[in-house]
Amino acid sequence: MPDQQEQDVWTVGRLLKWTADYFARYGVDTPRLDAEILLAAAMGCERIGLYTRFMEPASDEVRAKYRDFVKRRAAGEPTAYLIGEKEFYSLTFKVTPDTLIPRPETEHLIIETLDIIKKQELGDPRETKSESEENSEPSSEDTVTDSETGETYIKFVPRANPLQDVKLDILDVGTGSGIIPVTLAKQLPSCRFVAVDISQPALEVAKLNAQTHEVSDRIEFRYSDLFSAINPEEKFDFILSNPPYIGEEERETLDASVRNFEPAVALFSGQKGTDLIEKMLTQAPDKLKPGGWLLFELSPIIHGSVLNILSKTPRLTYVKTVNDFAGLNRIIVCRNNR
């Protein structure tokens, strides 16, 4: 980055252009986006606010903070760790180097779980109207007449959450920053959640996220190695997990920003990446209610191996595999058959 003593004025727009070019030379995947996110953080504003401030000179304080961000990002440190947060399912979550950085692929776990619940509780969700379709056809009570002017207008009334009263017990194994239970708790206000992790620092971050999104009263966080902290009599309607699923043999093929900065305990699971999933498949049936669901994320590389393991687990029935946005095998759905 140009030295502070440069005679030229370094405006927001000029800083962004210089940084995007600099990041591109260092192989950052999204150079312009990262430049914008980091500058917005340094300035203490929303990213969209930068677009109205392109000609504004950046203060010395902002430039000093931004310079530190840029150096660290060019060295491989993830943007999410630099600013301390990451968006997931339209919610903002605190993240630290003790937690895995949330990724869009995990949103499929949320979507699939909600679809299953809707189908169980409300019938096939494909037969129900979308929210936009409902609002385009307001009911008679949405039509309001002003008593003074006589003017008639449409008043859009927020639709009730169809899952408002659904009561289920849901377990998240390896919760990390808590994105799965927190996101689902926002959608399922009458459900009970237990979230476990083998990392106490990660659990502390998850608790903060639950407090931020005002769902901490419905999520119980426990330190646990898989199901070790689950009482024998506890049974769940759903067990969800984004477990470690990368093999040690893949370690050197990972992007340096992942390999060198994200917690290894949340990434790696034995030589092939299947060790923890195999343990989970063996133990999960004892923690599920009859007909309960197990959904978990995995790498497309180990999909075939996991299906083979699942075929040897008689108490679980394979239902389907959900593909991610790239069309890759990402979420396995199975069910307790007892």
Explain what you see.
The protein is α/β, with parallel strands linked by helices and about 350 residues long. The protein folds into 2 domains: about 10-75; about 105-120 and about 160-335, Vaccinia Virus protein VP39 (Rossmann fold), CATH 3.40.50. About 35% of the residues lie in helices and about 20% in strands. It contains 11 helices and 11 strands. The protein has helices spanning about 10-25, 30-45, 60-75, 80-85, 105-120, 130-135, 180-185, 200-210, 255-260, 275-285, 305-310; strands at about 85-90, 90-95, 145, 150-155, 170-175, 190-195, 220-225, 235-240, 290-295, 315-325, 330-335. The strands form 3 sheets. Strands 7-6-5-8-9-11-10 form a 7-stranded mixed beta sheet, with helices on both faces. A two-stranded antiparallel ribbon has the order 1-2. Helix 1 crosses helix 2 (about 30-45) and helix 2 runs antiparallel to helix 3 (about 60-75). It is globular and about 70 Å long. Residues about 125-140 have low confidence and may be disordered.
Largest beta-sheet characterization: 7 strands, mixed
- Proportion of residues in β-strands: 15-25%
Which residues sit in consecutive blocks of at least 5 with pLDDT less than 50? 127-140
Q: Could you tell me the CATH topology label of the largest domain.
A: Rossmann fold
Q: Tell me the number of structural domains.
A: 2
